[in-house]
Amino acid sequence: MDFDFALLLVVLTGVTGVIWAIDRLLFAKRRERIALAANDVPHEPIIVEYARSFFPVILLVLGFRSFIAEPFKIPSGSMMPTLLVGDFILVNKFAYGLRLPVLNSKIVSFGEPQRGDVIVFRYPKDPSKAYIKRVIGLPGDEITYHNKTVQVNGQEIAQSDEGIYAGSGDEGHKMSGAKLKIEHLPGVDHQILQIPNIDSHKEGPWTVPQGHYFAMGDNRDNSEDSRFWGFVPEENLIGKAFIIWMNWDQGIDFKRIGTLINRG
């Protein structure tokens, strides 16, 4: 089971906040009176001092991570060439609404995923895992995938050739020689990879249910995505990936730092 950092932050915030509050309400004034009577300076117990110091810091981290942005590291090559193994990204947590930490229930709605968005979500078959893919199908769409080409509601999504991909890093070198193409989704042009001589075994059609999304990796022949495990429920959304803030594979790749992910 993956480590639940959000739960840890909630617990630490609650524990430090309760310790600090109980001390202020029940013990601080008594401690001050005793110290004043003895012409001394009141001394906080060490646990109270730590709680008072750490509570606002942990609360700030919890609020930022839960409602503004959360960092993730790319562990696989399924989103190549857009995202590489070793990329550290930030995810906009309020792009599709605010959710309570741990419970993941939406409290405020701001918008919905658009076709072409790169989203992070909890894997439907194991919500403890976070996946990242690109939104291809919206609720109500019919998606097919034939001859390495996406069709949305019967309309083929155009592609243009960009030559042969030359990868870097351990995972990138494995994809060297793949076809590099631009896929022209409505409003979003983005790169994809295709491996010659590999057939598209999962072709559809798939009709996207209401409240769900069809997501695919940009590394089309090396991605476990909605073609294999189904749709992404709206309640599983974590946020919209928006920037690469660091890359570490075989050292720091400074050229990738600051790269925007979602561009339309």
TrEMBL record:
The chain crosses the membrane at residues 6-26, 47-68. It is a multi-pass membrane protein. It catalyses: Cleavage of hydrophobic, N-terminal signal or leader sequences from secreted and periplasmic proteins. CDD domains: S26_SPase_I. Gene3D superfamilies: Umud Fragment, subunit A. Belongs to the peptidase S26 family. NCBIfam families: sigpep_I_bact. This is Signal peptidase I.
